[in-house]
Amino acid sequence: MAKLILFNKPYGVHSQFKKDHHDMATLAEFIDDKTMRVAGRLDKDSEGLLLLTDHGELNHAITTPPTAHNAKYTHAKYAKTYLVQVENIPTEAQIKALEQGVMLKDGKTLPAKVRQLDENALPIHLWPRNPPIRQRANIPTAWLEITITEGKNRQVRRMVAHVGLPCLRLIRHQIGRWQLDGLAVGESRAVHLDDQMLADMGIFNHSASRSPANKAHSSAYHAPKNQSKPNLKRTRPPKFGGRG
Question: Reduced to 3 DSSP states, what percent helix, strand and coil does the chain have, rounded to the nearest 5?
Fold first, then answer.
């Protein structure tokens, strides 16, 4: 059984429980269970869906970047989707560049899903941000929905900036199967996942096979009745001259 908390993180809140200074806003102001661990942080300036869990393997599955062997699986199970408000109106070339991957200082990003959305057709109810975004006269803004399968530091912000679209607001609204789904800003909701649900996500309970009793049982040798145990003493291999 795994516990998972879905939290709609407000702007300005750090994705941690510990305060580094007295006026620092943290998760401790919103979530009582300090045993939970964040699975995929959000920057202080970013908003939206934050997952916390007490299950180590689930945390690892959500936060581990995909490789050549598991990229397809990871994309289907734990892709992260963001709403990004940017300065200027994106061109087809800019959207295509984001989709194909852009070269950042720490490497090229994996292919992403990108589409432009009208503000009246966003998949979530947009709450007012405090403080509001900066807006410059005569410079239009637009909304993009970007889905990625990795988690480089401030990746989405750097991606849009790289193609000439400065980020004004960033909201994560979905991670895999989990969505904000009407969760108000600053609110959280707990869900519990049984072993079958975890198995459906490719996470299996190995606790039984790793228990000390089972480990001792599997490593012990049980000779049949009236049969002596084999001689398990290791013999030293013969010496050979030279090094080949």
Answer: 25, 25, 50
- Tens-digit pLDDT profile for residues 103-161: 999 999 999 999 999 999 999 999 999 999 988 888 999 999 999 998 889 999 999 99
Statement to judge: residues 171 and 198 lie in one domain: no
* Amino acid at position 46, single letter: S
Q: Residue 4 carries which side chain, given as an amino acid letter?
A: L
Rg (CA), the chain: 25
Query: For 6, what's the count of Cα atoms within 13 Å in the CB-facing half-sphere?
Result: 20
Instruction: Look at residues 4, 10, 3 and name the one whose alpha carbon lies nearest to residue 187.
Output: 10
Active site residue 106: no
At 28, list the tokens: 């401790």
Residue with tokens 């480089």: 152
How many domains would you assign to the chain? 2
In this prediction the pTM is 0.80
Which of 23, 32, 43, 181 is flagged as catalytic?
A: 43
The answer as to whether 72 is a domain residue is yes
Is 228 part of any domain?
no
Q: Tell me the two tokens of residue 217.
A: 């049982």
